[in-house]
Structures are given as structure tokens and as C-alpha cells.
Amino acid sequence: MMGEQVRRGRVWKCRLAAFLGSAVLLAGLAGVAGVNPRLLKPNAYASDTSIETRPAFHDPALLARAWALPVAAYRRRPYEYQSNPSFCGPPTVANLLRSLGVDFSQADVLRGTAFQPWFGVLLNGLTLDELADLIRRRLDRPVHVVRGLTSPAFRGLMKSGNDPDRRLIVNFHCGPVFGRGAGHFSPILGYLPDADLVFVGDVNGDYRPFLIDSESLWRAVATRDSTSGKTRGLLIVDTTRH
User: Fold this and answer.
1) How many CB atoms within 10 Å of residue 34?
2) Which long-range contacts (CB under 8 A, 24 or more apart) does 99-103 make?
3) What DSSP element (H or E) covers 212?
4) In what order do the strands lie in the sheet with 143-147?
5) 222 near 208, Cβ under 8 Å?
6) What does the pLDDT average to over 163-189?
7) How far apart are CA 193 and CA 152, in angstroms?
8) Which of 63, 106, 143, 176 could pair with 220 in a Cys bridge, judged by C-beta atoms 3.0 to 4.6 Å apart?
9) Spatial contact of 125 and 110, defined as CB atoms under 8 Å apart
């Protein structure tokens, strides 16, 4: 009798393990489908040449100048990179908070909010408006959502990225920039006006902070987010209390 109970217990544990394994697998597949729509349809940007081939992308001399800019200097704490492809929003907020002396991790950013990962995956990521709401929850500062900028207006806003009293977060589609990928968030760490280069603090550890001309970045921002149905854009965070 005891042997039969042990056998049944082992069978039950095996079935439970198989069920949990299947659930994790399905969650992973759902997450991939949710955060990587390009896997479900042809890459519309396959013919675009990645900016990784451009000299300025990771040019050591230009990057040294960029890291010396006023806003980039605030980010001397360890820079946090996304833990998985769905997590570009949380580390973007975490790095912004760290730049203001608030020691948050990407996990801390989501804790206690409605944006909870499922098996480690943030399904469908976050929209621009959702990220703005997340920052407002964590930081008592004005957060402005900006969309529909012309190329000259966008370039003018990039110049303000050197103002220590504000932070810029950009929401762009990786396709026009890298020839692959989907929607993405990263902080703007500064702007080199003489070279018209934006210093993007990319939270993707494969790319890391890079330099890109404002026109190319603007084209990537002037794309539509399929989740919200709205054009991508930027967030402006005023770091001084009003």
C-alpha cells in the first residue's frame, strides 16, 4: 500500500513538472510573439543599412566628448541594461531615476504597478503614455509626452538634451536604425551640436550608448506604435520642482 502511494506521488510530481514546463514554454512563446512582432511578419526594414556601419556610431573620440556632456555626467552610477527584449522601458526609467540620485533597479520600477511581467516577460512592452505614467508614479516631477515633431523641431529638442534640469526619453523603432528589431525606449544622454549627433543611452546591452544623427533618429521616432495606434515620440521630464 505504501509503495503504491509513493508511486502515485511520483506520477503526480512528474505530471506537475510537465505541466509547469509546458506553461513556461507557452509563456515564452507568447512573450516572443508579444514583444517581437517582426517574427510573425517579414522584416520591413531588412533593406535598411544599420547605423552600426557608420563611423560615428561608437567612435571613441566622439563618445569621450559625449560622456563629458552635462546630462551624461549625471549617469556615472552603474548603467542598467535590459534583462530581456521586452524590458527596454523599466531600465530606461531606472537609469533616469539613478541620474537623479534615486537608487532603483528595473525590477524596482515595476514593483507594485499594473505592469507585471509574466514568467519574466513584459508582454507587448510599454507604450509611450504608459511609460510616462510609470515615471509619474516613481518621480514627483512633470512628465510631458511629445509627438508629431517635424525634423527641425526634433533637432531643436535634441539640443535641450544638454540641459541638466531636464531628461529626455526617446521612443523609436529599431528597424530604421539597425535594419531589424521593433519598438524601443532609451534615454537621451546629450547632443553634439557641431556634428549634429544625438547621444542615445541605449539600454540594449548589445548596442550600448551610441551616436546617431538627428535626422536618422527622427525617422525612427516618426513611426507608428501598433499597440497604441499612435505615433512614437519623446518624454520630457522636468527635474526641478515647480
Assistant:
1) 16
2) 99/71, 99/74, 99/75, 99/167, 99/187, 100/74, 100/139, 100/167, 100/239, 102/138, 102/139, 103/77
3) strand 210-213
4) 143-147, 233-238, 166-173, 183-192, 197-200, 210-213
5) no
6) 95
7) 13
8) 176
9) no
Measured CA to CA, the distance from residue 22 to residue 28 in angstroms comes to 10
pLDDT band at 101 (very low <50, low <70, confident <90, very high): confident
What's the grid cell of residue 112?
507594485
Region of 119 please: left (phi>0), alpha (psi -120 to 50) or beta. Answer: left
Least confident of 97-101, 188-192, 200-204: 97-101
Exposure letters 55-86 (e unless 16+ CB within 10 A, then b): ebbebeebbebbeebebbebbeeebbbbbebb
What proportions of the chain, in percent to the nearest 5, are helix, strand and coil?
A: 45, 15, 40
Longest dimension (CA), the chain: 84
d(CA 56, CA 54): 6
Residue 170 backbone phi and psi in degrees, to 5: -110, 140
Higher pLDDT, 43 or 200: 200
- Name the one residue in this structure whose C-alpha cell is 505592469: 115
Mean pLDDT, residues 188-211 taken together: 96
Q: What pLDDT was estimated at residue 184?
A: 96
Instruction: Give the cell for residue 10.
Output: 511520483
